[in-house]
Model the fold of this input.
Amino acid sequence: MKKAIRGRYLSYRDNPFTKPIKDCLQYEEDGLIVMDEGHITAIGPANDLLPTLDEKVSVTRYEDALIFPGFIDCHVHYPQTEIIGAFGMQLIDWLNNYTFVAEQKFADKEYARAASDVFLREILRAGTTTATVFCTVHPQSVDAFFEQSAKINMRNIAGKVLMDRHAPSALTDTAQSGYDQTKSLIEKWHGAGRALYAVTPRFAPTSTEEQMEMTGAVWKEHPGTYLQSHISENKAEIEWVRKLYPTQKSYVDVYDHYGQLGPRAIYGHGVHFTEEDFRIFSETGTAIAHCPTSNLFLGSGLFKLERAMTGSTSILTGLATDLGGGTNFSQLVSMNEAYKIAQLNGFALDAYKAFYLTTRGAATALYLEDRIGSIEPGYEADITILDLKATPLLAYRLNYAENLEETLFALITLGDDRAVQATYIAGECVYNRDRETGEEQF
Ligand code: GUN
Ligand code: ZN
Done:
């Protein structure tokens, strides 16, 4: 049913890392966003649009708020929700001691279903409307996730982890079974409603060369699907890959060799990328998911965001939580930590660029910038509304914000899930913090 929301809205038409912000930003002080059948049908100043609307169309007004395209989380592990904040280790030990223990429970589909619900509820509370998600090695963990995601009609990307070595036997498949299961999950889920499938080799150390071959093959055989994995996150990991694949020139070259780079391939981290790595990602159209809270929590290192986003060999980059290595579902918190990482690299990440990385920039990294990540007619109506008075300190601080950019930056510094007033999926309000809209609640 046609409906509209009214308030201050902000979106991007272009990339503020490479163009002046005035050429990128779309901002309306008192705007109206009209939605019908899951899509945005009209936007503009409320005073211009309201007279054109049938009086039966409901208009929900959000005051003291900012309306954004729904946030996109480019890399996250739903089965790791239960191990968020696990103490004291870096990547390889953290995987063996916490992750591989938790993921075994997802052989039980009902367990996976309950965990999917917790995860989906949490990301909606954080204002995230699309996530690129690792499930576990169990096909039923993918079925459970997509079944629950479909109930809310979310555009999520997910896939079964492929892993045939260096993991507990309860978490390994084989090159053949991984291939067969991936193929049948693609047939079942890719393009079913809003679901999209990602072929999901965990990372090069947990796949044999045979599995790496078959992974590249199954991805190639299904154009339009995604491929997600991890790369160059941690120094010990990189050294391990060097030993496991001695004939390849680099970690990036391993994935290149097995046909796993290209459009719709997105890799978490790239923390320790060399110039050559950036160049190959740039030339192949492969994307990086920058995962600030995870990189700090696991002591992995400082991603070179400015290098990634600028220059003749810039790469597609979207922001991500990487939870449970990451420590918060809120992309406001990811932006906050991205700012601090950039500071340590001598780069001042301004608020406009930060929000781009989780809206239009993230959509671009996922090759979905014609459907999600912007508030434009024809786009899918996934929308996040932030409350400018969410906490006493935020409200107080914003009294002293002199312009939109300062307001946005204070939201990044002080905001988290408490700042999310409401989240819309395909035009439906599926989360409202104060449960006041009377519309369907998740
Ligand atoms: N590398 C391989 N698997 C993982 C994982 O689950 N989390 C992170 N952060 N890195 C990984
Ligand atoms: Zn990850």
In short: Confidence is low (pLDDT under 50) at residues 436-442.
